[in-house]
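Fold it.
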Amino acid sequence: MAKKAEASSSADLLSTLGDFTSKENWDKFFSIRGSDDTFEWYAEWQFLKTPLISHLSSHTTTTTQTLDKSNSKSPPPSPSSLQILVPGCGNSKLSENVYDAGFQNITNIDFSKVVISDMLRRNIRSRPSMKWRVMDMTQMQFKDGIFDVVLDKGGLDALMEPELGPKLGTQYLAEVKRVLRTGGTFVCLTLAESHVLGLLFSKFRFGWKMNLHVVPSKPSNKPTFRTFMVIAEKDKLADSYQIKSSFEQASLDCDKNQSRGLFEALEAENKIRSECSPGSDILYSLKDLKLGAKGDLKKISLGRRFLLTLGEEGGSRFSYKAVILDAKKLADPFIYHCGVFIVPKVRAQEWLFSSEEGQWMVVESSKAARLIMVFLDARHTHASMDEIQKDLSPLVEDLAPGEHDDESKIPFMMASDGVKRRKVVHQVTSAMTGPITVEDVVYENVDGEDAGVTPSKELTFRRLTFERSVGLVQSEALVTREQTEKRKSNSAKSRKNGNQRSSDPKSILKVDHHYLASSYHTGIISGFMLAACNLESMASSGRTMKTVIIGLGAGLLPMFLRGCIPCLDIEVVELDPVIVTLARDYFTFTEDNQLKVHVVDGIKFIEDAATAASSSNETNIREKIDILIIDADSSDSSSGMTCPPEDFLEESFLLSVKKSLSSGGLFVINLVARSKAIRDMVVSKLKKVFVSLFYLQLEKDVNEVIFALSVDVPLKEENFPEAALQLQKLLKCTNPKRSQNISDAAKKIKCLN
């Protein structure tokens, strides 16, 4: 009779339920069956009891151990206190059986008023603690995190009608995750069809520990569909864990298609999870984040950082690579709760934006509690910034933290060079340096000290840049516009017509070599204060100081030095002949008896100088270098150190430098490194060779100038103002303000202990 009743139930189900997700159909179904005619989808209690009760019992044990570790004074939970939710309960006897096993704090919900009324009448006396509520399982009316267990028997399977897609299943699982407390479990009894597992596994991918068990069944002569128990435990962390299975495929006695589909889904999901292992710097999608891949995005998590892709197919015009960074500390007030920082393609490889340390520096300077750094690439080349911002705006709204005014807008910032207008003067590709550009630019804002340099309202600067070091200006010169004289026209036609017209005057741009556009050049010269006594002695005796500069650039520093310190005998060492040509043709660099260029390798030049200086010959001793300046850039902008190249910091080279310097000789390095760790490494290397070290940190600039003396000289910072004044008197600048600027910088030099 039992088998006959079961067959009859199946027939009733097929005849009354056209749609498993229809409330009206279920009301009709339960009305036909009546309150006493229970319906079990699958997993009869005699087979389900042992694995399910075992899990519920272990749940109370685990919770007790957690309380012990936290020294909580709350009493350990008992089976009767375990908060259990049974969604889509129907008229199954599952809740009644669990209640009778000692777990009596059970809440049952179903959207059918008919079945809830029937179940309430059936249990109100025998099971008075059992709760029954009419409620849609996809829109639960419970507070967050109030249940220890959500027990689902066929509910998810019923929602996952293939024709309807995953919408209802997605809504339901989101509610399950919401109402479970941390440490709680979702117990899902399912036939494990591939489309169901595909949704279930993905929605519990991050922050959930999952186990898969097969529910025992009656012995059968032929393979049948089996019921599986999926257990997902809510973890404190948002990590991705491998799904564990308590059985092997070979030992699983069930329908072959069911077995194959299950293990294919399990293998595919575990492969994805292995790629999402803790510590791996993977690209998350917005879908992953909504699944909880990196925790609750509505809250700021100090120091949280992860990569992601923005823009889904059909949801936006472009896709983007981005990184989200939550500020490391909330001590200072933030201007923005959330900001977007756009990095153009040409700057994406710079250390400041490509390295984690650099990105945190951008976060700090942005004054944003959360910064979304978006990297543009070739896909965005032909789009305007307005189009990019319009495309990004709806995407980043989902990433903003919740603790802010809903009306506040998310600001867009950009890594810009501040150029208002630019004109490319010349472009060339060097075999050594790569693509090189000479351009004239007008900046959006000009420093106050520069504003009055020329009568023109706008200052024009000529810049030399290398594509390999985008964002770093190699050289920058102020150019002024000069008018050529008017020429009278003497053409026969003019004389015949009785007219004598003047041709239009022409203007040309001329580099001003009396002006230092780069603040670090001012910093380099300010360090000459450390050799002011030698400079004064040479100038008064008519002798010259041998000065070597490694790295020509546009030749602006040596040209300025030649004009303002006549006692210097300057030699510039440049490896790339193309650079020398550009300096001559576009920056009016010229050589004479006081200024020469050697197109050779800088390291070899110094090594040869050190070898020559080691001789006791008096002539060679006079050829020792008095001032040596390293002003060369690195070919690897992603290393974190843009200047100088690492080879110039090797101990062997630094020893050659020391040997090549005269007694009291000055060694100067232009250091461009945003990383404190790299800066400390540079200083450590210098300290192995030089005793007397000094530094100047330039304001509003990443450049730092480091100075070293060849011998240990007892210089004290309190004497620097006097030495700075001594240097200022030696400078022959056409504009006294230039001398003053150098002197002021010299007073800021500090001893490097």
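The chain is about 35% helix and 25% strand.
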